[in-house]
Structure prediction request, 279 residues.
Amino acid sequence: MQSTASAPRDVIPAHLLKGQKALVTGANSGIGKATAIALGRAGADVVVNYVTGPEQADEVVAQIESFGVRAAAHQADVSAEDQVVGMVGRMVEEFGTIDILVANAGMQRDAPLTEMTLAQWQKVLDVNLTGQFLCAREASKEFVRRGVVPEVSRSAGKIICMSSVHQVIPWSGHVNYAASKGGVQMMMATLAQELAPKKIRVNAIAPGAIRTPINRDAWDTPEAEDDLLRLIPYDRVGDPEDIAYAAVSLASDLMDYVVGTTLYVDGGMTLFPGFATGG
Ligand code: BGC
Prediction:
């Protein structure tokens, strides 16, 4: 079994996102949690969205506050329009505005096609795709209202859509999930095109296999991990911090000219590793 590469903690410049207000959805576990913490470490004030598990959200808030920035937990189901409108409204009231949205909340409800219920299909589309649409829409209203504040950032707002390698890799037994991420890709690109003239940058991150609760079965035994590593040329399962650092970079002015891109953070999973020896 590969050992988890422990990510260096001091790689994030503490003032990179100073004065910026970030909302991370699904931020009480996995990639969302690591991203919320990394944004806080970079100096942003952070709203930690969650739908279940308030204690976990409170822990994330406490960790972020320990960096000397503000944090708050907001419960909302991203697929419920009124709840998203309420959450963004409350953030603007409490934090003054929003500069960064990481539309991360996502889920899997796996089943072979012939056994997949309409409810399983719909739920995954609702959370993974419609949820990102609703959050992007509400955040963008505030970005447009406020415009660019040059002392804070060169852009009026940043949206980072959490996609997946499965926006391009078909995935048997997961048609709802793969379809939702394919949708995220085109939604992201379309929003990027629409919003760029308003100085809003929309991009996506496509994680590969990251060690989080969503895919525990794929890495929590040595046999499963060995199987998984066959799909990863870089020969390690990703850590949530691998994604968090990408999100901090994309959200910062270091990446101000990056618009409408998907950043694959996947250890080479999208490089067709099966062809390393075949073809
Ligand atoms: C899925 C994981 C999977 C990974 C690579 C992610 O988007 O949520 O379950 O391990 O893609 O296949």
